[in-house]
Amino acid sequence: MPHGSSLERLRETNRRAITTLLAADGPMSRADLVRGTGLSRTTVSSLVGDLIASGHVVETTDRGRPHKGGSGRPPLLVALTVPAGVVAGVDVGHGHVRVAVADRRGGALAERTDGIDVDPDGAATLDHAARMVREVSDAAGVPADDLRAVGMCVPAPLDRRSARLGTGILPGWRELSPAEELHRRLGVPVFADNDANLGALAEVGHGAAKGSTDVIYVKVASGLGAGIVLGGRLHRGTTGIAGELGHVQVVEDGQVCRCGNRGCLETLVSASRLMSVLQPAYDGELSVERALALEEDGDAGVRRVFSDAGLAIGRALADLCNSLNPEVLVVGGSLGASPSLRDAIRSAVDRYAQPDTAAALRVVAGQLGKRAPVVGAVSLANARVGV
Amino acid sequence: MPHGSSLERLRETNRRAITTLLAADGPMSRADLVRGTGLSRTTVSSLVGDLIASGHVVETTDRGRPHKGGSGRPPLLVALTVPAGVVAGVDVGHGHVRVAVADRRGGALAERTDGIDVDPDGAATLDHAARMVREVSDAAGVPADDLRAVGMCVPAPLDRRSARLGTGILPGWRELSPAEELHRRLGVPVFADNDANLGALAEVGHGAAKGSTDVIYVKVASGLGAGIVLGGRLHRGTTGIAGELGHVQVVEDGQVCRCGNRGCLETLVSASRLMSVLQPAYDGELSVERALALEEDGDAGVRRVFSDAGLAIGRALADLCNSLNPEVLVVGGSLGASPSLRDAIRSAVDRYAQPDTAAALRVVAGQLGKRAPVVGAVSLANARVGV
DNA sequence: GCTTTTTGTGCGGGACCCGGACAAACCGGC
DNA sequence: GCCGGTTTGTCCGGGTCCCGCACAAAAAGC
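Output (structure tokens, whole complex):
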């Protein structure tokens, strides 16, 4: 990586200073860039010239306001160009595959969701996902060779070293490296991570926690997982399996969990568990969507069950917040849409965490809903793809 | 901070590359520096010349081996000089004040511990600490104006924004900013942090977790606290009160804790609590030291009580490890010396954490014992003091 | 129209880094 | 003991990069 002379790297560094400033604060004049970078006018002019020549930046036609209220030559604004090519996000969840194609700034171009059972056969699912990427690109009018990278969401922890799925969660995927397999099918770099981490990436980048640096994203759905962002960076842990909030033991001699332990939090609050607790009281099959609608209509049973689940989750999160003292807690996943659940999490945190810690914490609902994983996958692809 | 031209900063960056390489791998030849930095021989020579002129580096007299087994001109080794001046570490604990004076590389010069009751009066304690710093410096033969900075350990969480102590723990220190107060008394920069964070810094820098990047340091003593190092950096949290492991609630309707909640882990496993549980079975006053000696002699009661405490702590740590997936867990504090307690923590983690997480974790005893906070305070001072 | 103000661009100078040439210091073989 | 081989460190010329200054361009205000 560190090739080229030190002087070239200096110029590269200064170019990056300009592009990151433009990415953060939008189009601005060269004079603004001078103030932002501390470089001289001459240097900025020269660097911007390079960037225009290489196509990374364009001069916009509309000139900005001639400085606020002042006289003087009106500035020429420069703006980042959207790099050529597209990326795709692939969300492999329990019961569906969702694919989004987006430009290199994360702007969505097309998206499609197929409901299929992904658990039994990893290879067939990846075949399907690869086909979807090609078809969705096609539908968006994107030439086949414009695809630059793919981000991928897998519904289970990934071991960082082997890039394989953890044992015991998805039997049909054992010993499979999803990123490598999809790369073989599509011929572009593929980066994989789990749903909670990508949800965190999405909400921090484009959702409820935009701009915060210490964030816990908790996904409450068929499973329970956390994505932990500290100092602005996703914390994956030594072996890449950080965030396993669902497998905190809360009942000493509780149900056996799919992970092998017993009494895990996930056995109490997974979507399927909550639905089966509620089912006997209702006619017809009770889906999560229907339960959320009932909750909104004031159904006491649903509210009670969701609230109890929130208390259990909030109890575990309070301990984690005591240790990490985060700024924002984003509640996502299908059940994150439930106000009862979120309110219960908030009160459990207030009750069980240190007062100062609880006071510093904001608890908010995820803004991206079901799309969070695929948005995070697109973010991951865009973050990792080179220039 | 970013003053001077971009070109000057480039040279500064390259100088730093050399000094950090020397700091990490010890004395080496200019040719080694060329290989390590990727800069040209000419440039390295020039930079080393600057560093020698400015006194940051010296040419050692003993020439290194003339390349291993090869012929050729033997290299001239260059080494970092220890910067002029000293720093002090101040550890204010329950019942003692410990002061260490060290050189700018962390090498201890002198140390002293006074047993005093620090709780009732913060101002008087800081007077005493300032006097100790002057006296210990004097005993080490250090001129008074050689002191460059002080690191300070306070036995309670510090609010990052106000630099004041959290409410309710130390009544005699309320509304006091310890760093500012000690700065006023000594006239040099003072940096304060709590005992768990500084213990973590010490063990990661000079102790049991040297070289690891994801570390949890747990201090088991009169209180229970954790210092969390992630990605090689100490995680302090949004308001600086991360690591409050002692105030995880473990008994729903337990004892009221000094923090205001009830059933906190600390009410079960603090040193004083364990001693009062053990006391009735023994003649004479039972100190922690005596209990540790009894444990070593095979006393079943002490072993059982320490082991039970370890199980409770390990239970809480297992949850945290599930979320953070760290590499090393360092057990420090006065009770960290107990093998029964450490073994119990290990088995609780194995039992309650995810198998993959537990397998990736090393549980080790702290190497610095009671000196950990003061060593960490010295590290903090040396890390923060400028050139 | 003229001044003032702000923006953007050439030009010369200086700082920095690199490649190649050269001296120094040691080893091994004859 | 001498000579080639090897590695290390320094000197020199050239090229790249950034900065300060001067100057042109484009408005607003008198």
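DSSP finds 13 helices and 13 strands in chain B.
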